[in-house]
Design a protein that fits this description.
The chain has nine helices and four strands; from the N terminus they run E-H-E-H-H-E-E-H-H-H-H-H-H. It is of the alpha+beta class. It folds into two domains: 97 residues, 3-Layer(aba) Sandwich (Glutaredoxin), CATH 3.40.30.10; 106 residues, Glutathione S-transferase Yfyf (Class Pi), Chain A, domain 2 (Up-down Bundle). The chain has a four-stranded mixed beta sheet with strand order 2-1-3-4. The chain starts with 7 loop residues before the first strand and ends in a 5-residue tail after the last helix. The relative contact order is 0.15. Bound molecules: S-(P-nitrobenzyl)glutathione.
């Protein structure tokens, strides 16, 4: 199969976040914008995601995917890492600093994001269960502990380890899932960190592009 050389990513048609940039194509778009790589977007419906043509690209029937030349990738973290490795701007040159930035990428996806997602899912799908009220404080506490630890490490720094990196890009997108819920806002430095990420020109371009897709895929009547 011949695949295009300009990277093509996938995004959801009518994203449930209503264009707030919370779906995981946002982090890939932002990474591409940071390194100045033009890209194309293929919008897929929830139904099409589960069909064989999309599952060839993504075994779990999700977005985002990334196609470039004869490479097809899935998992937003792997895609951001691929972009960061091949183009300058998201990972430091110094080997140790680079390793630490990669550690922050894993921390964002493997340590900070899971409790945030679990709490979010509980709100979405468990709210009517008799045990929900009992389970919720534990889920809230797990998020709180992680944020307190992250806040303590960030301190007064602008970014997690020196210059802005792919670790910050992923961490900001993970924290944004809590935006407006009064949780990140309890940690002034984390709230400022998210705002700093969102103020980057590359972030703004990525955000506007995903919002345009949401607007364009809304039903017309
Ligand atoms: N680990 C994968 C990755 O990082 O790439 C997870 C990918 C994933 O969950 N993708 C979602 C998906 O395809 C899209 S982002 N879901 C369809 C399915 O699993 O069947 C989903 C999303 C939408 C809205 C919000 N929000 O409003 O907060 C957050 C995330």
């Amino acid at each position: 199969m011949t695949l295009p050389m300009t990277p093509t990513i996938t995004a959801i048609e009518r994203s449930p976040d209503r264009g707030r940039g919370l779906a995981r194509d946002m982090r890939v778009r932002w990474a591409l914008e940071e390194v100045g790589q033009p890209y194309e977007v293929r919008v897929v419906s929830f139904g099409a995601m589960k069909e064989p043509p999309h599952r060839v690209l993504h075994p779990f029937g999700q977005i985002p995917t990334y196609e470039e030349g004869d490479l097809a990738l899935f998992e937003s973290g792997a895609i951001v890492f691929h972009i960061a490795e091949r183009r300058a701007g998201l990972l430091p040159q110094d080997a140790n600093a680079r390793a630490r930035a990669i550690a922050w990428m894993f921390a964002a996806l493997n340590t900070v994001e899971p409790p945030i997602i679990e709490r979010g899912f509980a709100f979405l799908v468990e709210r009517d269960k008799p045990w929900h009220a009992e389970r919720l404080p534990m889920l809230e506490e797990r998020v709180r502990v992680r944020l307190a630890e992250l806040s303590s490490r960030l301190g007064t720094a602008d970014w997690l380890d020196g210059a802005f990196s792919a670790g910050d890009l992923l961490m900001v997108t993970v924290l944004r899932r809590l935006s407006g819920q009064g949780i990140v806002e309890k940690y002034g430095n984390l709230a400022a960190y998210v705002t700093r990420g969102e103020a980057r020109p590359a972030y703004r371009r990525a955000f506007d592009a995903q919002l345009a897709v949401f607007a364009a895929t809304l039903p017309t009547s």
